[in-house]
Amino acid sequence: MKRPIILHPDPRLKKTSDAVPDLTDELRTLADDMLETMYHAPGVGLAAPQVGILQRLIVLDCVKEDGEAPRPLIMFNPEIVASSDALNVYEEGCLSLPEQYADVTRPAQVQVKWIDRDGNEQSEEMDGLWATCLQHEIDHLDGKLFIDYLKPLKRQMITRKMVKMKRERAREKA
């Protein structure tokens, strides 16, 4: 089931998410719903706070090449255990900030561990878009948005645009 995505500014996007103590069918359904929502948006990552659930759960699929098989990842309690000194700059966007993009500098490679939807601990080294997306989504779990890496003026400008967009959307629905 597709879920509505919360748009910035919203206080729920600034809160720290709780660890998932144990997997339930309800959480597995949430993860499946989040994948459907992410693909439909379309996006390459989505964090539970973006659909109003303050739990440490993210979904990703950074396969962008046509004809390449999708690689959906569901991560409960993801944790970066190591980061490279080398940095990468990517133009990031966010489903909670539609049509807003900015260059963000992050570690180029990360080692991540998480619990998969079957309750098994997983670990993987990621680089490129996967590493950027993973760090972006984990930031959501910590109440941080990609615009928090920007200079205050640019951040305020994007926030003003988002307030205006939310107002216009509310008027259209009324």
Quick overview:
This protein is of the alpha+beta class. Helices cover 30% and strands 29% of the residues.
Structural class determined from secondary elements: alpha+beta
Sheet with the most strands: spatial strand order: 1-2-3-6-7
User: How many beta-strand elements?
Assistant: 7
Q: In the CATH hierarchy, what is the class?
A: Alpha Beta
Helicity, in percent?
Answer: 25-40%
Query: Could you name the CATH homologous superfamily?
Result: Peptide deformylase
CATH topology: Peptide Deformylase
Mean pLDDT score, rounded? 96
Q: Ranges with pLDDT <50 over ≥5 residues? A: none
Radius of gyration: 16 Å
The CATH architecture: Alpha-Beta Complex
Sheet with the most strands, sense and barrel status? 5 strands, antiparallel
| N-to-C series of helices and strands | HEEEEEEEHH
How many domains? The number is: 1
Shape: globular
* Beta content: 25-35%
Instruction: Note the total helix count.
Output: 3
Q: What is the straight-line distance between the termini?
A: 25 Å
Outline the structure in words.
30% of the residues lie in helices and 29% in strands. The protein is α+β, with helices and mostly antiparallel strands and 174 residues long. The strands form 2 sheets. A 5-stranded antiparallel β-sheet has the order 1-2-3-6-7. A hairpin with a 5-residue loop joins strand 6 (109-115) and strand 7. The model has no long low-confidence stretch (mean pLDDT 96).
